[in-house]
Every structure is written in C-alpha cells, then in structure tokens.
Amino acid sequence: MVSRRKPLEPKSKRPEKVAPSKRTLGSHPAKGASRRAIEKRPPSSAIQQAARNLAHRTVLLDACNISHYNQRMPRFSVARLSKAITHFVEAGHAVHAVMPRFHLYTRQWNDPDRLNGLYRKNYIITTPCKEFPNPKSQVYDDRILMAIASKYNCAVVSNDMFRDMAHEHPQWSYVVHNLCLPFWWDSAENFHIPSNEILRH
C-alpha cells in the first residue's frame, strides 16, 4: 500500500520583534547622538487625514523661517515655533512645521527638549537631507514643502518668496502665488498673519 502523506502546512509568519529606536535629541553628533536614531515618518497620511476631518485648510509652517531670530548659535527659537503652531491650532487648523531632519540633533535650537516635545506630538515633519559627509551639505525642505502643499492644497506660512521653486513645477507656482502667507512678530514676540481667505477651503 502506498501511504499518503499529509500536505505540509505553511509555517505562520510572525512579525519579528523589533526593539524601539532611541531618539537622542538636543545632543551633538560628536557626543554619540546617532543620525539613524531619528525616526523617519512619512507626512502624507497625517496631512491627508487632517484634510478630511477639518473644514479649515491644513497649514504648513516653514519652521526655520518662522523661528529664526539670531545669526549666532543657537539661531532658532522654539518658543516662536510653538507660538505659531498654537496660533493655528486654536483657530481650528491642522498644522505641521517642516524642517530638515538634521535640525533635531544639532545645537541650532535654543530649547532642544521643547523641540523634541513638539516632534513627539507630530507637529514637526522632518524632511530627508544629505547628511554625509557634511550634515549641512544639502537640504530639500523647501521642495518637499511645495510638493506636500500642492498635493494636499495646504496653506504655506513663510516670509520666503520661493521664487526659485515657482519655476520648477506649475503646481508649485500655484502654491507660491496663491497659497503662501507672510507673517511678522511684534515687539512683544506675538505672532501675526494678515487676515486671508486662503485659510479656508
């Protein structure tokens, strides 16, 4: 008699356990902060969900442009960035600040712990950048800012005129000329933008 063998059942694939990555923010790379420790999070899903749920237009902040206050180190104020974020949150907008990823582990910000807190709350989107051999050799935050704004019809808050960006793609030209808002700080460090209908869909 020929014995019949039971067909082998496929082994169940179990997801491997991956140890959570540790993010070292606010420390200099020379002191052991790993560039790979910075979590890369795709921004599109968060912005797309916000666009579905809110009647108001999603706002993208040019984080470095809004936060710059000094030519020396540190150059950027986390308090300014936080005030700008709060301004739009209280007005009912989904808001995301866009900056190059290496900004999370350099000494360019005056309050790294508070910056880390904004990042963990998903208010900050970090963009890819050429980090080797020089951490500041090339960044792509302006182009990614334009790409996200054109795809999801977001308002962009910046005093940068983005003239070079306007000539690269027709969709970016539309954002530059129709969806960009300037801002200013008064003597008491209060954040202001002009009243504008572009903040509404």
UniProtKB/TrEMBL annotation:
Residues 56-194 form the RNase NYN domain. Transmembrane segments: none annotated. Pfam families: RNase_Zc3h12a. Residues 1-45 are annotated as: Disordered. Gene3D superfamilies: 3.40.50.11980. Residues 1-19 have a biased composition (Basic and acidic residues). This is RNase_Zc3h12a domain-containing protein. It comes from Anopheles dirus.
